[in-house]
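Page 42, continued from yesterday. The earlier attempt failed because a stray header line got pasted into the input along with the sequence. Redoing it now with the clean sequence only.
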Amino acid sequence: MRAMVLDAVGPVRDNPRPLRLAELPDPVPLRDELLVRVSACGVCHTELDEIEGRMQPSRLPIVLGHQIVGRVEARGDEARAFRVGDRVGVAWIYSVCGNCSFCRRGQENLCDDFRATGRDANGGYAELATVPEAFAYPIPEIFTDAEAAPLLCAGAIGYRSLRLTGLEDGQSLGLVGFGASAHLVLQLTRHRYPRSRTHVFSRTEGERAFARELGASWAGDIDDTSPEPLDAIIDTTPAWTPIVEALGNLAPGGRLVINAIRKEDVDKNALLRLDYPAHLWQEKEIKSVANVARRDVAEFLRLAAEVPIKPEVQEYPLEEANHALLELKQKIIRGAKVLRITRTI
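This time it went through. Structure tokens are written below.
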């Protein structure tokens, strides 16, 4: 099979083509696994975190990619939940122990043995991938393969973030950064909280205009002051400056949810501007998001089909994965980026 392979970590500025196109042996599913013929795979900022070493892959070389859509090509002897030919999705959560206290209470995203697709097991920047069948999801028919791909991570993690805000209908929400995740959260918020006003903060006018197209009540720059204090804010950026600015826009008792696995260090000095009375006093809260649980993926796919939520996607051939990642690094974004994987016979 063809795959884009990461051999070593390092800054993208020093190596703008960190992935190489390779021919790898076809994977074979274990007894409880599915073999998936990949048709589309979303491109996520977490892949940049892996490439640049902020979150080290558990092994090298490795195939990245954790927003996989494809069809079941084969099954292990004990895999019975899906049939050959079924369309399935694979998300960031690849497997967990299933026995710890976190797993038993539905917080499997916090399991010490959490294994991630494309970090601890080969992912979807390839023509074939395997996954334990318990961590595969049926894809609603309403979505094309490319549309479904970002729902599996950008959408699911955005849904988890929105739940963690504790937002109530009529309260105000801020979205900091407006990429793959935020443009889906905005659509979901308008459906679930029709009386709430959503304010978007983004560095580029293109993203701000896109947010207004999707129904944002207001859109401004990262360091702008929102028209009203915000009851909840979701940050989806890889930077620190937006955190400080967001806290300044948060209402007393409000909650900032940071939807990022890692933050870059480029502007970390921005934290020195934190002023306790202005940014942290009056019982403001900060909560991080760690991974996703299966519940997040399954529930969001169902909700997305009901609304329906329509992801904006930019498609790239598999061999242009480096180009898509470089654009993501350079913040050339409108919606979500998705790799098209050519089917081979």
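Notes: The mean pLDDT is 96.
Reminder to self: strip header lines before submitting.
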